[in-house]
Amino acid sequence: MHPIIEKLKGGLVVSCQAYPGEPMRHPETMAQMAMAAEIGGAVGIRCQGLADIAAIKGQVKVPVIGIWKEGDEGIYITPTLRHARCCANAGADIVAIDATRRLRADGLTYGQTVRALHDDGTLVMADCGSFADAEQAVEAGTDVISTTLAGYTGEREKTDGPDFELLKQMIDAFPDVPVICEGRIHTPAQLTAVMEVGAWAAVVGTAITHPTSIAGWFRDALPAH
Asked: What CDD domains does the annotation carry (predicted)?
């Protein structure tokens, strides 16, 4: 097991991302958020965009999982080999890429993309939306697989909370591959549950680093007047 992946085992990875147009969408702000998460016990940080990756990598000691989102439909999480290489060059210790079986913008297959990144010496995390995606990722020799896109690609129903069924299926089928649970972990109890299923690590974003959503949850809990 690669030492960087070993560092994530049994721990919490915090996703520090802000959406376009939001007040916190600034590399320095995301770096400060990442530093606060590290102090709080995060074993890794997931972040988006080259400027954010570079800013965060310069401020934290834990591994950084980098992505580059482009667009908002189809394959938009690190959609091409070029995007992935740029993330690695910006400082990402692990580059997460869309691992679905959809057509990639540069015409490369998922397997070709992973092989090229491995030739560069880059660790790859597969953002999967289904078990078939996970199978493809494992066949390609991906270093880490995750449930990131479960419920967002049309192959699986979007669950209220983590997709425990897919998580367990992936863990049972691929005992030698680290499986990370990501997506809709909103409470400490849910985090405990996914780790009990056997996740290598868990990524939590919105519930920790997106105050607009968190404020909305509390607003919605107010008694109706």
From this structure: NanE
The one-letter amino acid at 35: M
**Dist CA 139 CA 119 (whole Å):** 16
Q: What is the mean pLDDT of residues 14-41?
A: 97
- Measured torsion, CA atoms of residues 38, 42, 44, 46, in degrees rounded to the nearest 10: -90
Predicted local distance difference test score (pLDDT) of residue 225: 65
User: In the structure encoding, which two tokens stand for residue 124, read together?
Assistant: 């790859």
The C-alpha atoms of residue 136 and residue 111 are separated, in whole angstroms, by 8
Domain ranges in the chain are: 12-219
Q: Report whether 73 contacts 102 (CB < 8 A).
A: no
**138/141 Cα distance (integer angstroms):** 5
The answer, yes or no, to whether residue 73 has pLDDT greater than 80, is yes
Q: What percent of the chain is modeled with pLDDT above 90?
A: 96
Q: What 8-state DSSP symbol labels residue 6?
A: H
Residue by residue, what is the 3-state secondary structure of 45-90?
EEEECHHHHHHHHCCCCCCEEEECECCCCCCCECCCHHHHHHHHHH
pLDDT by residue (tens digit) across 167-216? 999 999 999 999 999 999 999 999 999 999 999 999 999 999 999 999 99
3-state SS, residue 39: helix
CA distances from 201 to 11, 88, 185, 187, 198 (A): 5, 21, 12, 15, 9
Domain 12-219 has CATH 3.20.20.70: yes
